[in-house]
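FW: tagging you since you asked about this chain on Friday. Here's the raw sequence from the shared folder, copied in full. Didn't touch anything.
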Amino acid sequence: MAERVPLILGSVFVTVLVYEFFKPKNAFGDVPGPISRSWIFGNMLELQLYSPYGQHEFEWQKQFGPVYSIKGCIREERLMVSDTTALWAILADTGDFRKSPQHQLINKEVFGNRSILYVHGEKHRHICAVMNPAFSTATIRARVSSLQACAQHLSEKWEARLESQSVAGIFDIFQDIHETTLSGVTDAVMGYDVANDKEFTKAYKNLVITGAKRSKIAIVAHAVLLALPSWAIDVLKLFPPREFKTLLKHCHASQRRADVFLKSQIEARKLGIEPENDLFNVMLDSHKASAEVSLQEIKDQFGTITVAGEDTTANSIVWALYQLAKNPEYQKKIREEFVEAQESKRKEGLEFYESLPFLNALVKETLRFYSMVPYSERIAIKDTVIPVSQPITTRSGQQITQIPVKKGQYVQIAISSYHRLPSLWGPDAEEFNPVRWLDDRTKLGDKALGPYANLLTFLGGPRTCLGWCFAVLEMQIVLCELVRKFNLGLPENSIIEPAHAISLVPIHNRGNVELPLCISCI
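HL: got it, structure written out here
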């Protein structure tokens, strides 16, 4: 059977090629956009593989405006959208758009068919309602000390590493930051630190490494995935390629870890031990009270939260540290305001970190300038129209104020491009400048698209990331801990560029995913 797998899947691939070639063109073809130089790849190589990420996308936005068409793989038409009016329509709870089937298939296989990343409609609203108490301001405020302990563990690790060196050490911080945020999210949100769980941490580390790589084959595979019948997916699961095997290993490790943890919590409750106010116990309370949430639904959130709550936050911290190392004056400002706030003793806990203006400006600017998820795919589930804020002149010369979308057509929520709009972020939107958040340069308007500073980092509408406040707090705490204890600098002849993987990762000298920094104790 195994030797027949390539033939079977190859036949499916040829079928997809034939279908894509002969299917009728859609309405997006009349919307201006860049020329495609490849029938197979369309504009996907320029969009996804070029480093630094955005080199082509930002130029396309300058040339064609905040709404334009691009070619996907195998002649597929897609719409790139960063126009605020159009984004409102797409993100609103109208039932017109959903996540793409490719992403949903991956979400189902990796996280489970009850994961909050997979379910939609009433089921999604129900799970959100059950999970929301675990992400309330009061609950997050109670997790400050837990996050501080994780950050302190990292700084102690760096201090120990530097003790044996007489000069500033140069080492890669990428994996260190990921380990810290993984401990932070599992301990603070789920009451369980995975640091000593070798099976889970190994599976997760392999997932991060695999997710940090993207190839031409992966881009085509992503396009073909949609057309694979269920039996072909079952074949893939029996004889998975390396990348798919990594995803499945993480899924199995997550399910086993969740099983063990849930059993221990249920047993503790039987013994009368007071439960923590973490995510799993909040959901267990709901299960115990009315069985509105099943144990399988609870288990399916474990892998979801570890990936969604760790990877993007870790890489946001990595990019913030890169900018701090690049700009020593930023480090000085954060140290000064930290000491001043500490000496005044005006605030503590969550409010203490919120009271540091330059730190928060740096966090916001990092999330704006480095969009961890550069774009998010949506598919129309029925015929609809997308309104735009300014008329678009089509290739045929017609001026339109709304774009017709047919059922099954794809739209890209262009998060990175939205974060570079001069109309929102100022004339220097293409530069990294935290001061824009302190001098009223940003124009947020009356309607914010996202929950935090009008950024789309955490999306918006009903699919807004539940843990956005937790992610911001974790960034604040880790950055404060490291900046007040270490001097950060960039090694000579070190070129760091952003590349698109699962999220935006640093590529060192056009080679590996890593961020080497010069680090010395203060």
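FW: Residues 1-5 have pLDDT under 50 and may be disordered.
HL: agreed, and The domain at 2-521 is CATH 1.10.630.10 (Cytochrome p450).
FW: great, closing this out.
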